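Interim report to the steering committee. The following record documents the input for GPI inositol-deacylase (1113 residues).
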Amino acid sequence: MGTPKVGWCKYRIFIAILIAASITAGGLLGFHKPNLKGCIMTYMYPMYIPVPLPSNATAGKYSLYLYHEGWKRIDYQLHLVKLSGVPVLFIPGNGGSYKQVRSIAAESDRAYVGGPQDAEYYQQSGFTPLEAGPMQDELQFSELLAKVRAEGQYANHLDWFAVDLEGEHSAMDGWILEEHSEYVVQAVHRILNRYKESLDTRSKHNGDKGEILPTNVILVGHSMGGFVARAAVVHPELRPGSVRTVVTLSSPHRSPPLEVQPSFGRFFSKVNDAWIQGFKSVQTSGGHWSKPPLSDVVVVSIAGGARDYQVRSRMASLDGIVPPTNGLTIGAAGMVNVFLSTDHQSILWCNQLVMQVSHTLLQLIDEKTGQQMTSPHARMAVFVSNLRSALPHTFDWLPSITSRIPVSLVKSASIEEGSGKLDKEHDVPKQGPFACPSRVPWEKEVPQNDFYSKSNIMTVLGMDGRRRVMDIKKLAKDGDWFVLATNLAPCTGVRVHLWPASAKPGGLSDFEEAVEVTTKMAEIPAGPIQHQTEPGGQTEQAAPRGILRLSPDDLRGFKFLSVSVAPRPSVSGRPPPAASMAVGHFFNPKEGRMHLSPVSLLSTIFRTQEVVLGEDHPLLWNLSIAVSAGTLPLNLTVKALSCGIQTTVLAKEDPAPEELLKICKARCFPPVALVWDPPFGLEVIPNLDSEIVVVDSAPAIWGSSYGSEHTTILLMVDPHCSYKASLEVSLPTAASRFLSVYGLQITGLAVAVVLFALMRQARAWELDLMVPSVVSCIEANLRIPSPLLLLAPGLSVVYYLLSIFGTETPPPLISFVGVSLVCYIFANGVVALLAVISSVIFEAASFIQVFFKLKFRALEDRPRARDSRSSNSNVKKVIKKLKSRPLLAMAAGITVLLVFVHSSIGLIVLLLVHAWNCQTALCRHRLQKTLKWSAKKEDRIEPQLGKTTTLGDELKTPAALTYGENHLETYRYRQGLLLLHLLSAVMLGPSLAAWVQRSGLQSALPSFLDSVLCFGIVLHGLYLSVSDANKSFVPLSHLFGPKVAEAGFSFIYGIAGLYCYCAGLGLAPYKAYYALALIGAVTAGLRFKDKQTRGLKADFSGMRRHSLTHKHI
């Protein structure tokens, strides 16, 4: 920890500032880059009915409303009396309004009136082994889905309530968050009581006593409202069983977006710990294990995805908080019928999303009771099957209990159970789980019209009513997949069967021998409707809407594969242009695989990586990226080159490339990209032309339960055409992702950087050296190989090794260390830039002050007349006492601000004290330098004037020579404290903004924890002068020998810096307040001990050593 050399050439600082500035500029460019959204706006006729409080209740600042959809005027009181639906309470987020309930509430009303969605027979997502828990059988899951599936009409409607939280910023202050959770508990009780009051009123007038009262409320929260909902569930005053289902929209669960306030972080941890303990069994006094308190609660977290810059998917994850049997985390981009990433606000009004959520909530209603289902497994089955896409199960990215049994084993099981028989209750053939229901009409094929494919590629260009048959033994090799991409709807437009070895060509008519796999097809978004190339001509080929994948295990034991196409419905006049397609392909997945290493991926920054896919290529092209697309987003471009058409058969001898491209678009379906990232989930990009592939994951953060951190891109491209795929890293998007994902980590590391600088300054005093500037200390900390590699990668590796023993899945070590190093350099650049800017300001201010002070020095030397006016003697005594103990008076004043106003106000006052001290010290240093220069000038003039006494004689004394250097050291040290406490005050800035916003509504005392910690910071800032840094109380000589000087506050700064570094890596920068408060407590303790030893009236600054002993280097 030697003192660095002070020089003008600080290239390391320049590089750090350049890196920080470049990432910030690129990030801002990425944030402002327009993102095309596919969300459809939701329209409504909103009406908000106030729910009155009981007669014995006192009105507060919050209120409760009931939503009503309609444009006609209604009687509010009569409408409240008619309450009979399933209660749902909407909780707005940070700065949100209760009126934000209108989109999802209006869509719920329309969904109830219109009934369940049209039946589509795509494969539904199933439980993973972790979600299934004791239910490890696929048949049990299928039966459970059949029981909860609504038919014809929903059993009851939803009554949507909303709490008005006055638009307070709950994401900025923990105290506000606690108040919101308390009011939500009261609102839940008020809603349930209101239903009872309404039923009692109806019973008095109509004698209606047969209704079932709701006993629980569904909570739906947006942003911080989702966390408030979870906080209300574990609130001690909530009635048991009052909340059993919680749905959150873009809500943080694992960590808040602004985890910089101590009380905020403590409340967040308290709620999460309560949830973790709530799913554990408790042993009673009799030795029996009781049911976990939260075992009946189901939580669903819907994340916005990569476009949500405020709440990332990692924050919205329930991993480690809610067990998979009771919790589901799903991204909007991987939701059924949605497949879109949404930003933080559009998730509330995106029609595709709110429609799907509305139908899912309506399916939670039990047909017998008309209220919410009691079984948590049934509710989880509804959410999983209606929200999560089956594509991850189709490609084995996500394990599923429904994919454990291959199709080849279904036939043997069907024979034992009675093949071909129907389950009369649910109208499902027992010959397999992927067969179409018998209620769906289908005309049986005529074997004589079958078309037998001679190629491993099968094509359907229209609904001709014929059946395509492929010989598996001849066309498929060992290890081959069969993949079918089509826009025909399963069961109604296309059906797929596997025929056993006993089947013969021309005799595929006994369907009892075949195994149907139609509903094994997974849905993908179709994208925009293709336009016609010319009026009345052929349209561009339609985009696929479904994909069916059969693995070698599924094909084993079968001889033929048949694809039956329904005939086109008859229409009058000319038939519409063909818009139906299906392409099936047998191929080996190893042939269509490409891996991009980190080196090759980084090389695309300078040179685009291109891949040419020739004709007859695999229908699926697997592109594996070693680095997550959340860290290095890719700009992916796919262009068609040819489509196997010879120019000699065209009417035009030499067609232009654009004309050939039009022909290819009419023959080949548009490319589709399926992007899978384990921590983030699924995203589908239909009609791919040129798109930035970015996923909302963070490889340097703990989290994923399944798979690796690598991103997989499956390109679904028509094998009839050849394509050129281009890849390059999108630097602006990568920079914006870096700032949004690792902002909290950078904040914690910035505090550590300042503490490391203060450590070097304190160590310089202990070694009797000149105190270096903050910029010089940062420059020294960036030296390679030491201490940069020791402080950045070294500490990251230690933190990684200590954290792998936790409950979360650790990320790859290389990614974690690499990103942590970049964050540390970025933090050094930010702190160095603040130090340079503050130095420039203080230098300019001191220059101006010294200039005017010397200019008007004669005026200051004039004698002043004494003020003969009398004043209060008591006031004089108070002023005299305050002057005798200025630090005590200042500490008392700041403490009042900390306790009764706001913690950040006290820190702002402390910053003003630091700024004044810095300015005063630097001004005195500059004044001394100016006087020295004037003295030397007078010495040169003396011989000519013959003078014997000059100002230079006075300034040549030892005290005068070191007077300026003492103030320079004071300025440098105070500047370090200024930067440290500036970061502390900035971290409390969001809380201050929330306090200002609600100051006109109702005043409340600051959090006690925040006040106590900030009081410790104030003690550190006021009482730790430069002389204190010279105190030694850590005997390093006992450990490293007598040549090593004893350590004092340099040791404490170093330990605090290491703690803040680890807090930053853990995305908990608020923990830095504990370290800073501890430094203040140690400072106050040493101060008190020294005063006890030296006497209360001792001059504490007398401990300052003589600066002549400094070793200048």
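The mean pLDDT is 80. The committee is asked to note this result when reviewing the revised timeline.
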